[in-house]
Amino acid sequence: MNSILAPELTPIGQLPATLRQRGFAVLDAASVCNLAACTPLQLQALSPSWNDLPVDHHLKDGGRYRRRRHSCFVVEGENVRQVPHRAHWQPIEYNALHGGMQRMFEPMQPASLQQVAWPLLVRALATTCSAVKGARPWYVEAHQFRIDTAGGIGRPTPEGAHRDGVDFVAILLIERRGIKGGESRVFEADGPHGQRFTLSEPWTLLMLDDERVIHETTPIQPTGEDGHRDTLVLTFRANGFQE
User: Fold this and answer.
1) Which residue range is the domain that position 181 belongs to?
2) Which of 85, 139, 212, 230 is most solvent-facing, going by the fewest CB within 10 Å?
């Protein structure tokens, strides 16, 4: 029995309108390629870098189930510019578990950032943000995550249901292998309604208006060897990085 609940997909032409209407939208991989004006092979060329992520040593629950890299960019019009490496910081009101900490992670590898699809993808998502909230520079934090099940359970969002303190969050599934769980849950920030579904196709995009919705991903457990869930999370914020 297949217990995975598939998300409702948004046609690419309706992406800004859907974000304005309900605060989140899901695109399949073909639509992501269309949005970024790249080929599936160009997008998939980014995927191997998830096999070389350092362990996250900042987990306050004592776990070693998360690996990650982190880099920052500014998008102004057509220009995607990487900025000097910096720590990741969130206020406590947005991350009760890890807020208030200056967390320094290893940067993304230059080979990843030199792939054709990278600036195309970041620019396309920034353009979508501008279509919803108006054109402006976007301050982007990029996080490569691998959540593994070597210890029996992995927690994609150990902080629980949360907002990130930004304008938009883009979550792209890179791979899920040998696991169960990992259900995405999206709730109204100021209302009773929510939806749940599981991202299963590589390079599916879940895009969120962080001011309007709260999100989380349920823990994962192994169903085979090397069970893991890989994602790329990009946050877009106007008026600077969180300090």
Assistant:
1) 23-237
2) 85
